[in-house]
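Our collaborator T.R. sent over the components below with a one-line note: 'Predict the complex.' Nothing else. No constraints on interfaces, no templates requested, no preferences about which chain binds where. So this is a plain run: every listed entity goes in together, and whatever single assembly comes back becomes the starting point for the next discussion.
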Amino acid sequence: MRRTLAGVIIAAVIVVILSVRLNAFRDYQIAEIAIDVTAVAGLTVLTGLSGQISLGHGAFMAIGAYTTALLLLHLNWPFIVVLLIAAAATAAAGAIVGVAAARLYGPYLAGATLMLGVALPSLANAYPSIFGGDQGLSVAFTTPAFLGASFPPTRWQAWVSVAVALVTLTLLANLSRSRIGRNWRAVRDDEVAAALAGINVAAARVLAFVVSAACAGLAGSLLAVVTALVAPGDFTITVSITLLTAAVIGGLGTLPGAIWGAMVVVLLQTYITDVATSHGLSATVGANIPVAAYGLILIVVMLAFPLGIQGAIRKLFTGFVSSPLRDSPPQRDGPPQKEGTQ
Amino acid sequence: MVEFMQFTLSGIVFGMIYSAIALSLVLIWRGTRLLNFAQGGMAMFTTFVAIEVIYKTGNYWAGFAAALAAGLVLGAVAEVIVIRPTIGKPQLNSVIVTIGLLIGLEGLAGILYGSQYRSFPSSFSITGIHLGRTPLGVSTSDVFVVVAVLAATLVLAVAFRYTSAGLRMRAAAFNATVARLSGIRVARVLTLGWALAGLLGALAGLLVSPSTFLYPNSMDTIFVFGFTAAVLGGLDSPAGAVVGGLILGVGLSYVGGYLGSGLTAIFAMALLVLTLMLRPAGIFSSGRLRQV
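Returned assembly:
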């Protein structure tokens, strides 16, 4: 607990110093990383701790983003209220998906969530009068008056995003250390044993989806105000898979890993696009190299370094002492398969 | 009434394409108990191969053959290089690896061919067929879609039933350990399964692209529909995959025709969730529940 708080304070100070010294584009990047951290932290808890995969987290981000855009557009409530409502709405959606998902495992769950990621954004085109169709909805977000008129809006957005990310990380860290987190790990490692130990397996799995969706909703809400636009193109399958990539790179199930993963994904994208354009490659090529790289990274990390960056760091610190890792990734994510009964 | 018939017929045409994707998923599922999420991405990539060959040679059938061959090779290579190392590891790993393969291929296609929508030629005339004076809403090219998928299915079914390679594949799918003990090289059989699945996927890509355009993400929706069809018929059942594809195709055609095309994906999702809740082993299952 004390370590988490210290980490949060140090991170906040670093971000404030950075955002004051750097330019508006870097502020935007900080906000982008913070948004990704929020969403990836939720996903890494779902997949790494409770053992459920989601390939449709972009859909949850879309729910948060559209809730934010609609509330700001029609009611113009204060952002903090809108943010909380967006998280609550997404959590409710997460509960519905979670109830359906609690009975599924592995590939079935992956397919069903992939379907969610494809189907939900298409609603924006089915009801263009509400959701603005392909063009999307524009979002107005103003800096508070007490900061003065000359305060750069991107810096304020970066601060807000980082604050939300840090609060989310703190809450998730506490949650994963609590009885709930232990239940998730128990369900992940052996469903039958967990049930015998008195854990309500279905409830634990649904709760993981609710928590994870709420994080994605917060991220979507932040994304809406930072990019000032909400359109179905922001929530494609590629976005959902990018979140998964970040969680896998960082190390599934570890919260610091979510930070490393989000930073790698955001910075890699900017860096590759810069290099590509400076070498005279077209914008399309520059935009697609990171996507191809994510694919390669997912395969290589999963085959060779399944513990990700955080796993490597931990190994570095623990040296050659072979201690059983407490947060080892899921060893099995389904009921035991009996040979010959298929 | 004419409208209803047109929706039904065009639903059957699209249904055959979902069937082809579903069949390719079933083929891999029976052998390795894993879902190939890259199936759509592989189909997209082989269709780009076809378009390049068609541009170079000016011959549609040269492109057609090239895509099928590319599908065969891509399936086999994918199995040997990235799938085989995940066998025996947690199931989550293989899911994530096929996802990696999917966006890897989508990114590569974007780098090589660009992200813009490309039109893809169809094999035969796309002008509608008339029965007497009523338009049927389908074309010769659509008839070819149905014939091609049915022919591929039949060839596969016959090969599975009557060739020794087919027997080996069935044995390996039924019980890998016993098959290995009887001298079957199970790893090779699995590679063959992936190659055939790649071929079926390539066929689906070739057949669907004239009506959807071709771009790196063009097969995403087709893939999830194919997955839905496979679950609908039962991931273990090749016949179920074909019927599931037809049911889904016709159902989506009615939804798109009568309620608006924006709702088809939501309808498919509802169907998928209902199937997984009520009959997780597919609508033709004998009632014995498999854990999903």
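Summary for T.R.: The CA atoms of residues 305 and 312 of chain A lie 8 Å apart.
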